[in-house]
Amino acid sequence: MNALALLGVHALRWLHGFGRAAIFFADLLAHVPAALGRFGLVVHQVHAVGNRSLVIILASGLAVGFVLALQMYYALVTYGAAESLGLIVNLSLVRELGPVVAALLFAGRAGTSLTAEIGLMKAGEQLAAMEMMAVDPRVRVLAPRFLGGMISMPLLAALFSAIGILGAYVVGVLLIGLDAGNFWGLMQARVDVWRDVGNGVVKSFVFGVLCTAVALYQGYETEATPEGVAHATTRTVVISSLGVLGVDFVLTALMFSAP
Questions:
Q1: Quick check: 233 and 115 in contact, CB under 8 A?
Q2: Which among 4, 145, 161, 242 is placed 20 to 30 Å from 69, CA to CA?
Q3: Which among 83, 52, 58, 85 is positioned nearest to 70, based on CA atoms?
């Protein structure tokens, strides 16, 4: 009975936290139109969230392109299909690896930064001071950062995929010696803009909303202590990463199940 009661307590606590997060997300969406009027703040957050994540996105995309090209070549050459290397790498990146890996890196770099920033503002009572001056922190602080993450994530995922394809070209064509015409020709002929690239953009947008919302919620709801901020940043990475992987499975099943 004690174990059952403990299970019930944890379940109620989880449902309470999920409900608070849902209310926070709905409230955040309601304040997005007001934040659009503060275009300068949104641009600043796009720079802070997106531009400062650019180095790790490009470096990781190039490395993934190198490794993916090598692994795919070793697998395809066994069946005499090495000419399809460019097509396989492109589909892998724009459909799956680009949005997912970029979102995981985004959660680790930008998500933790947002959580720590909001958490420190709460610990320093800056958010409370804004409320005392009749300034809504959700419009002034949270919504511009939310928009910045929504805008930055698809752009970062696109750059990740582009630099990954370039890395695959370097390995496949310049190092291994595959024909450049086949590398680009099959890619152009078989990759569909709407079904492949478009679905990848939709994925990256959803991941941007998810990671940014989780980061802002964890920072806004954290305990106003150094330990609370540290735990919130950890929860941001864990929840965002698991959420990206779970949502990716659902989106993939919905997007690519029909012929």
A1: yes
A2: 242
A3: 85
128/130 Cα distance (integer angstroms): 5
Whole-angstrom distance, CA of residue 115 vs CA of residue 118: 5
Alpha helices in the chain (DSSP H): 2-30, 32-36, 39-49, 54-76, 85-92, 98-106, 112-123, 126-132, 137, 143-169, 180-190, 199-220, 226-256
Q: How confident is the model at residue 64 (pLDDT cuts 50, 70, 90)?
A: very high
- Yes or no: say if 203 and 133 are a contact pair by the CB < 8 Å rule: no
Q: Determine the Cα–Cα distance for residues 11 and 108; give it in Å rounded to an integer.
A: 28
Say how far apart CA 186 and CA 180 lie, in whole Å.
10
Strand ranges inside 100-230, DSSP E: none
| Residue pLDDT, tens place only, 196-214 | 888 899 999 999 999 999 9
193-206 residues labelled b (16+ CB within 10 A) or e (exposed): eeebbebbbebbbb
Distance of CA 127 to the CA centre of its chain: 26
Domains of the chain: which residue ranges? Answer: 31-252
Residue 7 token pair: 């299970």
Residue-wise pLDDT tens digits, 108-165 = 888 898 898 888 888 777 877 887 887 778 888 888 899 999 999 999 999 999 999 9
The rounded distance, in Å, linking the Cα atoms of 234 and 149 is 19
Contact 73, 82 (CB under 8 A): yes
